[in-house]
Please model this.
Amino acid sequence: MKKKNILITGGLGLLGRSLIKKLLKEKHSIYVIDKKKNSKRNTFLNKNVKFFYGNFVNKQNLKKILLKKKIEVIFHIGAITQVLEALKKPLKTYKTNIMGTINIIEAIRETNKNIILIYSSSDKAYGEIKDRNYLENDSLNSIYPYDLSKSCSDLICQSYSKVYGMKVAILRCGNLYGPGDFNKNRIIPETILSALKEKQLIIRSNGKLIRDYLFVDDATNAYYLVMKKLISTKKKMLIYNVGSKYNLSVLSLVKLILKEMNKEYLKPIIKNYSKKEIKFQKLNYSKISKELKWNQKTNMKLGLHQTLMWYRKNQKLFK
Model:
């Protein structure tokens, strides 16, 4: 593939960091927008990665970057990602996740409609569909703030593609995990960090919520395959679920981690603070497997082991 100028929003998060590494291997020029407070996570000493510290809600700044750097592809993965944070701060969530997405796609429309947008949606955009796996053509019927912010942004991206002829891809992933996740309120980092401190984890749900869990590098491979497809196809819009064969309850996942750490005696405490979450989610990802030959390469045991090793090595960063 010809070298591209690629912009990543939220590039210093879990998925962004993995994506940068992948794109560097493929010799692309990478530009990253992320918040100034995340600059300490920047360990990329490479001339092909340049950072802009700011907020993608600023449309004028976005337009300057698109024009000056001749951006050809945007991975929009920056967002408020925590369900409980979104419940506490719905307005901030809607402004960041929905208006941020509108600003990005409007900046594309106003500068160069040939720029490809790859939007990071979520399994939670579907809302709750009982008793079966989610399919790409299912309606988006979410109600909780984070979920709804993803549904709205997802539909907005679809609208711009259909109305303005822009090339857009939408990926709906399950829960991602892996080394380098600085969001210590996610279930896997929180479980590991609590156990490393010999503390019992407090589970804020009933422990029975079921989700797909996918190693971040497998998700990155999906994003890269989708970019390649969107560049080469005449289609204007692609939508894919990116799921996992590992569909676990919170309690089962925590037990797996504690077993891997030989700390099964640190039994979690269930508090169930929040009852405003989807109970069951499972993505059907046969479409991306069939059309793009994507497959999940990292099994849960290996993925958790690699993640655990990273937190052990970098525990001082979370004191």
